[in-house]
């Protein structure tokens, strides 16, 4: 697919990082995504392949760090956290997964399909068409087990779109909304949360957010180049929220914040971070919420 938007282009970076992680020794690995490289376009797959050599991985990591201090470690830790929380939801008996703004995300295939969970991915129509083509090329008919809904979170009706694919509104779901909110307007974020308020009691919402003080330039947290690229003339990041504002934001839409994690929590829970000397960016945080 050609003519990708800036938002689509930036989505490749985290997938490249996830794919490169498979070349890290198992005892130091934060993430094990065996599909990430296979879903990537050819150019990015070549980069990943080159990263089997440790010096090349170090060059790519250093280039990433020059854009934002701790970005590489932050991407790995957020993906590990979200994977762990999705698995915990399945272990608790939740049998539906919804991935919003899925892009090339692999969780539905890696985690949901083996667990027998009904899985749904939401993205813009062009992205859905691209994802369907890539998944079929890699997984064949098995890829069709994940149901794809071409929807725009800013304008389309989310829950009716899911219902048309077999989503059961009377059963809880775990919803993953990774690295998406910053690309939406504030109105679109509220619109999505309002739609998600229709989910059944016991549902879980996992999402990431960019700090408002980074987005408005008050604190750059060692990520000046990223700030300039994402908020400059061709702005692609629009929404940010400070950590203390998350609970009230969720409460307006019937959700309860359960946990919010960032660098301190990642370091405390994952010894691999210290073992590898990874820094972790302050600009993004992960949130777990529940519908009660």
From TrEMBL:
A Pfam family that the UniProt record links to this protein: LCM
EC class name: transferase
UniProt GO MF annotations: methyltransferase activity
S-adenosyl-L-methionine is among the record's keywords: yes
Enzyme Commission number(s) of this protein: 2.1.1.-
Keywords: Methyltransferase, S-adenosyl-L-methionine, Transferase
Keyword Methyltransferase: yes
GO biological process: methylation
PANTHER family in alphabetical order: S-ADENOSYL-L-METHIONINE-DEPENDENT METHYLTRANSFERASE YKTD-RELATED, S-ADENOSYL-L-METHIONINE-DEPENDENT METHYLTRANSFERASES SUPERFAMILY PROTEIN
NCBIfam families attached to this UniProt entry: mthyl_TIGR00027
UniProt family annotation: Belongs to the UPF0677 family.
Described purpose of this protein according to its UniProt entry: Exhibits S-adenosyl-L-methionine-dependent methyltransferase activity.
Protein name: S-adenosyl-L-methionine-dependent methyltransferase
Protein species of origin: Pseudonocardia humida
């Amino acid at each position: 697919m050609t003519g990708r938007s800036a938002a689509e282009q930036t989505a490749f970076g985290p997938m490249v990082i996830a794919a490169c992680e498979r070349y890290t020794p198992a005892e130091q690995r934060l993430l094990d995504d065996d599909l990430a490289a296979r879903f990537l376009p050819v150019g990015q797959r070549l980069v990943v392949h080159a990263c089997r050599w440790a010096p090349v991985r170090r060059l790519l990591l250093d280039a990433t760090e020059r854009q934002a201090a701790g970005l590489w470690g932050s991407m790995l830790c957020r993906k590990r956290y979200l994977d762990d929380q999705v698995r915990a939801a399945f272990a608790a008996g939740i049998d539906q997964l919804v991935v919003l703004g899925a892009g090339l995300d692999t969780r539905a295939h890696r985690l949901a399909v083996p667990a027998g969970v009904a899985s749904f991915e939401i993205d813009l129509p062009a992205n859905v068409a691209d994802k369907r083509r890539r998944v079929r090329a890699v997984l064949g008919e098995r890829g069709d087990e994940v149901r794809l809904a071409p929807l725009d979170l800013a304008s389309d009706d989310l829950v009716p779109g899911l219902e048309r694919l077999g989503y059961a509104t009377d059963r809880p779901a775990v919803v993953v909304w990774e690295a998406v909110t910053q690309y939406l307007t504030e109105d679109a974020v509220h619109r999505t949360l309002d739609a998600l308020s229709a989910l059944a009691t016991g549902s879980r919402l996992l999402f990431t957010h960019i700090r408002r003080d980074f987005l408005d330039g008050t604190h750059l947290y060692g990520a000046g180049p990223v700030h300039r690229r994402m908020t400059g003339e061709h702005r692609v990041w629009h929404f940010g929220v400070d950590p203390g504002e998350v609970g009230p934001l969720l409460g307006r839409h019937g959700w309860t914040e359960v946990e919010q994690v960032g660098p301190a929590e990642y370091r405390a829970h994952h010894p691999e971070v210290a073992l590898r000397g990874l820094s972790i960016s302050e600009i993004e945080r992960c949130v777990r919420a529940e519908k009660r």
